[in-house]
Amino acid sequence: MTKDNSIHIHPKRILVCQLRQIGDVLLSTPSLRLLKEKYPEAEIDMLTEKKCAPVLENNPHLSRVWPIDKKALKNPFTALSYYAEIGRVEYDLIVDFQQLPRCKWVLLFSHASVRLTYTPPWYNKFLYTHWSDMTPGYAALAKASVLSPLGIKWDGQRPEIFLTDEERVQARALLEREGLSGVPFITVGPSHRRETRRWPAGHYAGLFKLLEDRYPALKVLILYGPGEKDLAEQILSESGGNVLLPEAMLTLRQMAAVMEKAVLHLGNCSSPRHFAVAVNTPSVTIQGATSTAWRFPSSDHLSLIRQEGCHMCNRNTCKLGTFECLREYAPERVLSEFSDFLDTCLERRGGDQ
Q1: Cβ neighbours of 66 (radius 10 Å)
Q2: At residue 3, does pLDDT exceed 50?
Q3: Which pLDDT does position 83 carry in this prediction?
Q4: Cα-Cα-Cα-Cα dihedral sign, residues 61, 66, 67, 70
Q5: Among candidate residues 241, 186, 187, the one with its CA nearest the CA of residue 212
Q6: What is the mean pLDDT of the chain?
Q7: CA angle, corner 323, sides to 322 and 324, nearest 5?
Q8: Phi and psi at residue 302, to the nearest 5°
C-alpha cells in the first residue's frame, strides 16, 4: 500500500463514493468534473444515498448513480446483495470520500486495481491501495485534494447542479403564483438540525422587519425541508408582510431553480448555501459554530461571524449552554454587516433584468 504516490492508470470505469449529506454530495461535483476532464473516455458512476440523488440528475459527467435506499436495504442480506452487485462491476478506480460502512462493503466486493481515499485510520488501510492527506480549506477543495495522486488539482471549480429548461419554466410559474414575478426577492434557509448552527427564529423575524423598512419592494421567500415547516411558520407568524412561505415543500431541484432567480440567499451554514454557489446566486451565511471552510472563496459569498467571545468552535453542542455566538448576534448588527452587499446585489439584479 502506498501514500501520496503518483497513480498511473487509464481507467475505463470509475466509481465515486459520497453517501451524504446533501450539501456534501453537491460539494463533490467539482471532483466529478475534474475526473471527467482527466479521463474523458471513462464512465463515471456515483454511490450516494437516495435522498441526495436528485442533486446529481442530468450531470453530464456521470454515467450512472447507484442510490442507497436505507429502507429498502434494511434486510442485511438484501443490502449485501446490492453492495455485491455494485462491487462486481468492473471498476478500475474507486474514489471513496467518506469511508462509511456501506462504502466499505462495496470495496470488499470490488476488484478495482486502485482504491483511493483520504488518509485512513490503521484499521481501514487494508481496504485501499492509495491515499492522500486531505488539504484543509474549502470543502470542495478538500475533497478534490484526495485526487492529487492522480495528478488532479482543484482550481476554483464551483459545485454544480444541472437544471433543465423545463425546471426553470416551472420555477418561473411557481414564483408567479407566489406573486414574485418581476419582484426582487431573497431566499432564506432558516433551519439546521444542529442548534449550534441555527440562528434563532425570532432573530430572522426581526431581520425581515428591518428589511421591510429599509427595502419596501424586497420580498423574502422562506425555504424548508422535511420536518422544518413548523419553524418556517413560526418565523412567518412573527414577521411582517414581506415574507412568503410556499404551501408545499419544494424539491431540491425546485429549490435550486427558484434560488437561481433570487437576488441573494441568506441562511445558516446548511446545504442551501451550496446550492446558491451552484446556481451562481450570491449568498450570506450566518455561521454560528461552524468554520468558514464551507464558504466558497469568492466575494459573492459572505460568512457573518460574531467575533466577540465564543465562536467557530465546530461543536454540535454548546459547551457554555448559552449559544451566545448566535443568540447575541442581533438582527440589527447582522443587517449592518451585509446591507452594502445587498445593495450591490440589488443593483446587479436590476441591471440584469
Answers
A1: 17
A2: no
A3: 97
A4: negative
A5: 241
A6: 94
A7: 85
A8: -105, 145
Which amino acid appears at position 108 of this protein? L
Neighbours of 240 (CB within 10 A): 13
**Is residue 140 within 8 Å of 157, Cβ to Cβ?**
yes
Q: Which residue has the cell 460574531?
A: 306
User: Among candidates 81, 82, 20, which has minimal Cα distance to 56?
Assistant: 20
CA–CA separation, 179 vs 350, rounded Å?
A: 18
Question: 176, 246 in Cβ contact below 8 A?
Answer: no
C-alpha cell at position 160: 454544480
97 within 8 A of 107, measured Cβ to Cβ: no
Alpha-carbon distance of 50 to 121, in angstroms, equals 28
Which pTM value belongs to this model?
0.94
What is d(CA 41, CA 43) in angstroms, rounded to the nearest whole number?
Answer: 7
Residue 20: is it exposed, middle or buried by C-beta count within 10 angstroms (0-12/13-18/19+)? middle
**Phi–psi pair at 317, nearest 5 degrees:** -130, 150
Q: Copy the grid coordinates of residue 195.
A: 442548534
Q: In what order do the strands lie in the sheet with 264-268?
A: 243-244, 219-222, 185-189, 264-268, 283-286, 301-304
Amino acid (1-letter code) at residue 278:
A
Give 238-253 pLDDT, tens digit per residue. Answer: 999 999 999 999 999 9
| H or E element that contains 220 | strand 219-222
Widest pairwise Cα distance in the chain? 63
Q: Specify whether the CB–CB gap between 285 and 267 falls below 8 A.
A: yes
The mean per-residue pLDDT over the stretch 23-40 comes to: 98
Contact yes or no for 65/48 (Cβ under 8 A): yes
**Measured distance CA(136)–CA(17) in Å, rounded:** 20
C-alpha distances (whole Å) from 77 to each of 80, 83, 159, 212 are 5, 10, 36, 57
DSSP secondary-structure letter at 136?
Answer: P
Q: Which three cell numbers stand for residue 66?
A: 447507484
How far lies 80's CA from each of 14, 72, 75, 103, 128, in Å? 21, 12, 9, 11, 20
- Which tens digit of pLDDT belongs to each residue from 137-184? 999 999 999 999 999 999 999 999 999 999 999 999 999 999 999 999
What's the rounded Cα separation, in Å, for the pair 287 and 23? 15
Cross-strand pairs, 66: 47
